[in-house]
Amino acid sequence: MNTFNNPLILGAIFLPIGGAALSLLLAQNRTYQHFIGLLSGIGAWLSTLGVLYFNLTQGPQVYRLGGWETPYGIILVPDLIGSIFGLMASTVVLGGIIYALGCKDKCVTYPVFMPLFLCMAGGLHGAMYTGDIFTLFVFIELMVMSSVVLVAISDNRLGVEAAIKYLLISALGTLFLLVGIAAIYATFGTLNLADIARKLASGERPLLAQAAAVMLMCAFLLKSAIFPFHFWQPDFHTTAPTPVHAVLSSVVVKVGILGLIRLTNLLFTAEAPLIRSLLLVLGLIGIFFGSLAALRTYDAKRMLAYSTFGQIGFILLGIGWGTPAALVGAVVYAFNHALIKSSLLMITGAISSRMPTKSAKLADIGGVGKTLTLANILYLLGGLALAGVPPLNGFISKVTLIQGGIDAHSFLPLILAVGAGLITLLYMIRTWQLMFQQPPAPELKVKPKGDQLFAPLMLISLCVLLGIFAAPLVDVATDAVTQLNDSQIYITSVLGH
């Protein structure tokens, strides 16, 4: 088991943050900013890939900042589940950076765009890797504040309004998180996740322990836009610049998902059955609400934002069932969804960028993509993957989740989820037909050039590969769940006893 400080852990977090500082110093030269952003994204991606490799070969990785012994100092602990989520995040972030290089939005040319985007990436990776609950709060706030400003400077005239709304709602999530952290510290005198888990494993629930569980769960539900904390998400995500929206709707919402997994499988394991029952209900509500809202919406980007409700609902079912097979399905679903959703949002952005108003309303962009063969093929593949059509990676997600439902003997929720999954196929095919199959209106003015498609091409290629060669991801997810269900592995890696 690895006991030394693995520098790759720092690379995943501080290469983007260092790149943000350097690109801010070079704010007057957009070419240098792009070069630094691309290098930072590639470096962070390679670092997360290395962390995952060392996890598979040596066990959970540990970095003690400042050399302080645990549980007294700040510690970064990417175990296997955190490493999978970290690689997922860095892959989408790298795709977002590549997309931004060929994006025609005016806001992308602002000197603050790349530094803020990299800060958001650093906060995202840190939230996946941290082993300290207060550091989790710090990384989440870095991610949130960066994304708020990125939405506020969007070309969309409603960006400032959406950013202010989210800032106020996020303050509620921050309050939940801080109260939960304060309750944990007042009860146990520590903020280290492994140390908290060790003390909770005794079975005692002194003072504010269970109240802390409620506060933390509410914070994670809000960060993942899960019912009843979902209302901020469509406006905030839809008005964001395309590369930002691609990251927000695919991986930023997964921070809360990882938090819920930690809550049920590491910390409050005695309360886990009750929490999972609640997540099962919220997952079913999210699936139907998100799917039906996506079917009825009027905007292609907003449709994908509502779709995220439904897709997160499927992941919640896996966590709610709680069996090893169901958790494997949840992890595989989360990883594959990030690739699919980010690519679909980038393609939608590339289509709307060809409109003078850059509108993504279905009434405005109908037929705009008819002559764009590559975008047509990529969007169709992404839509089929999201609906779970073989041989794409979305099919593997659905199959592993169905296996989890069968393993949990939870047949009614499983039947409802499979039935609701058909709605995904309906709204994706409908949107594809409107954008790419019908002839454009004669009076429609379309720009000859728009955003580049290299980033969504890269991500859709991964979707195809992970559908045909699904075994490696499923095997790694299985190992992660095995490690997750033995909390002593995590505790021993951090505390050494």
- Which range best describes the helical content: under 10%, 10-25%, 25-40%, 40-55%, 55-70% or over 70%? over 70%
**Average pLDDT for all residues:** 88
CA-CA gap between termini? 13 Å
Uncertain runs are: none
Q: Write down the secondary-structure element order.
A: HHEEHHHHHHHHHHHHHHHHHHH
Please indicate the count of domains: 1
Based on DSSP secondary structure assignment, what is the total number of beta strands? Answer: 2
Pick out its properties.
21 helices; 497 residues; globular; mainly alpha; 1% strand; two-stranded antiparallel ribbon
Write a structural description.
- The protein contains 21 helices and two strands.
- By secondary structure, it is mostly helical.
- The chain has one domain.
- Helix 12 runs parallel beside helix 18 (about 410-435) and helix 14 crosses helix 20.
- The mean pLDDT is about 90.
